[in-house]
């Protein structure tokens, strides 16, 4: 069911009738005015283009055969102009050849009605395409809001990179999440109604077809050539994309919230090796055999270490990020070079230095990191993973935890095609909290 606002919009829709026959214009205009539509008229192509460009209508009924400029050319120019490109065009013509109808759809028309026509048929098609246009407008508005949310996040990235330190990032990100929550709630809350609109539209079309199971030959030919199946599939695809986009933004907001609450973790003395082993256990399903690659071998080279006072949850998050990145690098290595005779391996090693700091190394023999990528490796939101598979926050968060929160160091060494080693250095006692 359409909202009250949408119903009102459809009832007062602005329809432009373009026909060089005055009688046709008078007939259609009178009938549409009786239905409550606003009607404008044009008797040739030039007048139609001027009227549409001055104030774009909600729908155009366009005759094909007109002097100077035929309907096909008018439609081409309408679709070439950004201001009028989204206005649906229904062709009205005495032409009944398949080639004429195909050409109408090729130049951008949404429907083709053959003269002489039944007004009930014209009215149903107008209502259908106005509803389709209304749904597409609503979906586009929601899509624009999602894009604005992503643009807002990208602007935040630029602000974060300019900061020499990330001490104030938590409060900043928390504010962004709060600001994004309202528009995202609106988007998510309207996805289900949008789906209902599509179902309603399909039901209307289906009911009309059932009410007229034996259409005239002209209508049957027109339905055969109509593009309603594509429009239906495209609407469903748009809604699916909207759901994916909103889920994506919600996931990013959740990650940013976690990012802004890093100071809440418990501080205590722990066994570093226990944290590493718990993380390996957590990632067990990613380490086993897969159809496209063998299991990943995890080798330990642990030194005898004292307990380390640290923020436990945060440090475990660093281990998780580094190990996940190592597994991703190994998987990409085997996708890019499936014939490579190589055993995928992750080496975990620890040592106690003379300066009484702990060194933790996570090394893999995956694809490695190029120098260009390495220059931006710890930037927030920077990722080399495909769209939808990474947010570019893992290493940025890890850097903040190790360097800013624990007064340690986080660096890496890598050779493209041979592997990467991340090196973390921590003091025995957390003094920066």
TrEMBL record:
PROSITE patterns recorded: HIS_KIN (PS50109), RESPONSE_REGULATORY (PS50110)
Coiled coil region boundaries: 132-159
Modified positions (4-aspartylphosphate) in chain numbering: 63
Known catalytic reactions: ATP + protein L-histidine = ADP + protein N-phospho-L-histidine
Matching InterPro entries: CheY-like_superfamily (IPR011006), HATPase_C_sf (IPR036890), HATPase_dom (IPR003594), His_kinase_dom (IPR005467), HisK_dim/P_dom (IPR003661), HisK_dim/P_sf (IPR036097), Sig_transdc_His_kin-like_C (IPR004358), Sig_transdc_resp-reg_receiver (IPR001789)
GO molecular function list: histidine phosphotransfer kinase activity; phosphorelay sensor kinase activity
Response regulatory domain boundaries: 14-130
Known EC number: 2.7.13.3
Sorted UniProt keywords: Coiled coil, Kinase, Phosphoprotein, Transferase, Two-component regulatory system
Official protein name in the record: histidine kinase
UniProt signal peptide: none
CDD domains, per database record: HisKA, REC_PA4781-like
Domain of life: Bacteria
Enzyme superclass (EC): transferase
PANTHER family xref list: OSMOSENSING HISTIDINE PROTEIN KINASE SLN1, TWO-COMPONENT HISTIDINE PROTEIN KINASE
All copies of domain Histidine kinase, residue ranges: 175-430
GO cellular component: plasma membrane
């Amino acid at each position: 069911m359409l909202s009250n606002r949408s119903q009102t919009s459809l009832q007062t829709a602005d329809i432009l009738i373009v026909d060089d026959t005055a009688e046709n214009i008078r007939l259609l205009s009178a009938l549409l005015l009786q239905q409550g539509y606003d009607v404008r008229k044009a008797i040739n192509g030039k007048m139609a283009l001027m009227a549409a460009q001055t104030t774009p209508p909600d729908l155009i009924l366009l005759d094909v055969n007109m002097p100077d400029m035929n309907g096909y050319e008018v439609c081409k120019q309408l679709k070439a102009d950004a201001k009028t490109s989204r206005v649906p065009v229904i062709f009205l013509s005495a032409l009944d050849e398949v080639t004429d109808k195909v050409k109408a759809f090729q130049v951008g028309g949404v429907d083709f009605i053959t003269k002489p026509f039944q007004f009930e048929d014209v009215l149903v098609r107008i209502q259908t395409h106005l509803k389709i246009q209304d749904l597409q407008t609503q979906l586009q508005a929601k899509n624009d809001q999602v894009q604005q949310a992503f643009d807002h996040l990208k602007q935040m990235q630029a602000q974060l990179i300019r900061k020499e330190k990330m001490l104030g990032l938590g409060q900043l990100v928390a504010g962004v999440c709060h600001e994004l929550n309202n528009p995202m709630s609106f988007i998510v809350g309207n996805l289900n109604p949008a789906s209902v609109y599509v179902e309603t539209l399909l039901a209307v079309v289906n009911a009309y077809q059932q009410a007229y199971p034996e259409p005239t030959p002209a209508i049957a030919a027109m339905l055969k050539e109509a593009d309603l199946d594509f429009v239906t599939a495209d609407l469903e695809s748009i809604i699916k994309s909207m759901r994916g986009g909103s889920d994506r933004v919600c996931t990013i907001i959740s990650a940013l919230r976690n990012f802004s609450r890093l100071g809440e973790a418990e501080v205590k003395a722990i066994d570093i090796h226990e944290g590493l082993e718990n993380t390996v256990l957590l990632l067990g399903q990613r380490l086993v055999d897969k159809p496209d690659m063998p299991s990943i071998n995890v080798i330990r080279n642990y030194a005898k270490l004292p307990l380390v006072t640290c923020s436990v949850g945060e440090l475990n998050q660093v281990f998780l990020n580094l190990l996940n990145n190592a597994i991703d690098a190994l998987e990409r290595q085997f996708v890019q070079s499936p014939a490579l005779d190589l055993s995928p391996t992750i080496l975990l090693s620890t040592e106690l230095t003379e300066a009484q700091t702990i060194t933790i190394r996570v090394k893999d023999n995956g694809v490695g990191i190029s120098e260009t990528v390495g220059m931006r490796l710890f930037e927030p939101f920077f990722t080399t993973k495909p769209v939808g598979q990474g947010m570019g926050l893992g290493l940025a968060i890890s850097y903040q935890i190790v360097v800013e929160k624990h007064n340690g160091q986080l660096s890496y060494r890598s050779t493209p095609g041979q592997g990467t080693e991340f090196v973390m250095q921590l003091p025995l006692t957390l003094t920066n909290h």
